[in-house]
Specification:
alpha/beta; 6-stranded mixed β-sheet; 6 strands; about 210 residues
């Protein structure tokens, strides 16, 4: 209701709150199972070559996206994907001919192996590589602090679209997805559906306004 005008004055309308747009949701999915022989045993230099090829590989054939992930993408207003083939092919398998925004900001954090003696499977090397990277060994690649800044920027990219009322889906990678998670939680996003970290899994976030 407009305020009454003071005697001899003019009427000043009461400011109205702008219409609030309800935030959309954010779905962050991990890619499907990529090609790659995980049974081989490699030294640390062999693992470097194995991982470089892994980043060039797409998905193992014959996989079917889970219905829940297809349904989540069906309701999306914008679909993002990492530029790495395993993530982009996952997005295509789920979203079909819909437009996919591919952005390197979402690629996986690097996995440079420590120069350790002995041969191990790629899975075993992955554990050692992630631990040493987390503790500061980057071997000339992106460092942990740099990746954390990238995770903040990536989460902000998703949140900016969702806060405009759009439902957002991202297809990316297990570790980098987890790096974005605390950023979203700190900024008011709540994980309302937790599909864990397997291939084709996803988490859904919704915004909770401060009260």
């Amino acid at each position: 209701m407009d305020q009454a005008a003071p005697e001899g004055g003019t009427t000043t309308p009461t400011p109205r709150d702008p219409k609030r747009v309800a935030p959309g949701s954010i779905v962050i999915a991990r890619h499907g199972r990529p090609k790659g022989d995980r049974s081989v045993r490699l030294d640390w230099r062999g693992y470097e070559l194995w991982w470089a090829q892994y980043d060039r590989n797409g998905l193992d054939p014959g996989q079917t996206p889970p219905t829940a992930l297809v349904d989540a993408a069906r309701g999306a207003d914008v679909i993002f994907a990492s530029t790495l083939p395993r993530a982009f092919e996952t997005a295509k398998a789920v979203a079909g001919d819909r437009e996919i925004v591919s952005d390197p900001i979402f690629v996986e954090a690097p996995l440079p192996p420590p120069p350790m003696w002995g041969k191990r499977t790629p899975r075993q090397w992955g554990v050692w590589a992630r631990a040493s990277w987390w503790l500061g060994r980057a071997a000339g690649q992106e460092t942990r602090p740099q990746a954390e800044l990238r995770a903040q920027a990536a989460a902000a990219t998703l949140a900016a679209r969702a806060l405009r009322g759009e439902n957002v889906v991202l297809f990316a990678h297990g570790w980098f997805n987890r790096m974005m998670r605390p950023v979203l939680l700190r900024n008011g996003w709540k994980c309302v559906e937790d599909g864990k970290d397997d291939y084709w899994s996803f988490r859904r976030y919704e915004f909770r306004r401060a009260t």
